[in-house]
Amino acid sequence: MDNLKVPRHIAIIMDGNGRWAKKFGLNRIYGHKNGVKSVREAVEFCGEKGVEFLTLYAFSTENWNRPSEEVNALMELLVDSIIKETPDLNKNNVRLNAIGNLHTFPENVCTKLNQAIVSTSNNTGLTLTLALAYGSRLEIVEAVKQIARKAAEKEIEPESINEKFFESYLATSGIPDPELIIRTSGEQRLSNFLLWQAAYSEFYFPTVLWPDFRKKNFEEALKEYQKRERRFGKTSEQLKQ
Q1: pLDDT tens digit at each of 241 positions of the chain
Q2: Could you give the residue numbers annotated as active site?
Q3: If we measure between CA atoms, which residue out of 170, 171, 172, 100 comes closest to residue 135?
């Protein structure tokens, strides 16, 4: 692997926790608990390789439709993980960030999450973003609403709106688009994740379930990424000039 050709930003759809648990005859929450180990390895790997941004799809807006028992267990797991992992995030110079409809989470979750974000805010290494209660379509709609209000109040002219301006109203403002998006478990769809930001992303769909995703799997993903030719509409010949 060429360590000089590592993506600045990698995003991961952490899929397969439930199927992993079912494979062992366990409750789905055990899959989520074991998935935390994979999160830890992903953060460590990205830090070691010099990746600047890692975004994890931890909880979608659609996940609220899951059985209440699983949702409640996920909330407890989230709080517990935040408390346990914050010291290591600071030790490894990782800055924590979160995007999504965070106000929909229980108060204790929001409190612990905000405390961790503040605690790691001065770190200068990897930026770890958790997408929580996140849905890309809703993100885009909310951005349109904000811009429409400003246009209605004559604060901006419609002709001044371009892609860069629009992106400044997205939840990921200030974060570069992901060069690589990984979805584990073999499923091959975005599931309402970073739809705008993924316009020129490379996709990698390993069949391994998320709780089994380790550094060696991440290494394989980056090797595959480095085989891709990122042309952005140009020809191969133009890139060689």
Answers
A1: 677 689 999 999 999 999 999 999 999 999 999 999 999 999 999 999 999 999 999 999 889 899 998 999 999 999 999 999 999 999 999 999 999 999 999 999 999 999 999 999 999 999 999 999 999 999 999 999 999 999 999 999 999 999 999 999 999 999 999 999 999 999 999 999 999 999 999 999 999 999 999 999 999 999 999 999 876 566 666 666 6
A2: 15, 63
A3: 100
What SS3 state is found at 59?
Answer: strand
Residue type, 120: T
Sequence spans of domains, the chain: 9-134+177-240
Q: Which residue type, as a one-letter code, is found at position 121? A: S
pTM for this predicted structure: 0.93
Tracing tokens 């975005």 back to the chain, one arrives at: 190
CATH fit for domain 9-134+177-240, picks 3.40.190.170, 3.30.43.10, 3.40.1180.10, 3.40.50.880: 3.40.1180.10
